[in-house]
Amino acid sequence: MRRINLMLIVCIFCFSVCNKPKKKTILKYENGTVRYEWINENHVDSIIEYFQNGYWRSIVIFNDRIKTDTPFILFKNKISINYSILTGNIIYFYPNGVLMKNLNLKNGLMDKTQYKYYPNGKLEVKTDYVLGRIEGIQYEYYDNGNFKCYGLFIGDTCVGGFSYFDTLGRLKKYLFSDSNGSTIYIRRYNTLGKVISEEGDSTPVGISVPRKLQIQ
């Protein structure tokens, strides 16, 4: 995962530095350090914001500028971005330079796969969106890399099976929800993996749960 993150950062760096932009604007903090870089290359805008320690705070890439609207406004020492119309990528970093989030937007709505990371670089959440709604399996992890929980979402609603784990990666709870997102069955496990309690109707369980929900 760290290797993938590093490749992503290197690609962004090459885009913003190695290319020869037609236009580049730099805004600074009061102490003279760079706060923003606005780069325009072939009608594609990229805005890099820095922490005062010199590390990247965020990178915004406008893949499709809407002609009738202004995606951002330049002030004396600040750039105001209109995220509600953004189609592109937003990448956030922690103050020490570690990747925090990698988001994809379409017309201001979350779209495609979104990633969030812990300060130690481990993946925290991976979620698939379609125009602002969660569609697909959402995975959450502990900062040690083990699963925290995962389950299927359809139309922003949790349906089917959802599994929860302890910090050691042991299954501790499994619940099943109907197509409306209402939980109809809960099963709990002890640290040895044995069932210790069950609640609700277990009839649908094992029939409607997608195979994708099984850990490989």
Q: What number of structural domains do the residues give?
A: 2
User: What is the helix content?
Assistant: under 10%
What would you report as the Rg, rounded to the nearest angstrom? 22 Å
The span between the termini is: 17 Å
Report the average pLDDT across residues. 83
| Class per helix and strand makeup | mainly beta
Q: Please describe the biggest sheet, giving its number of strands, its sense, and whether it closes into a barrel.
A: 16 strands, antiparallel
Instruction: Identify the overall geometry.
Output: elongated
Secondary-structure element order, N to C: HEEEEEEEEEEEEEEEEEE
Contiguous low-pLDDT stretches (5 residues minimum) are 207-216
CATH class of the largest domain: Alpha Beta
Gross CATH architecture of the largest domain = Alpha-Beta Complex
Number of E strands: 18
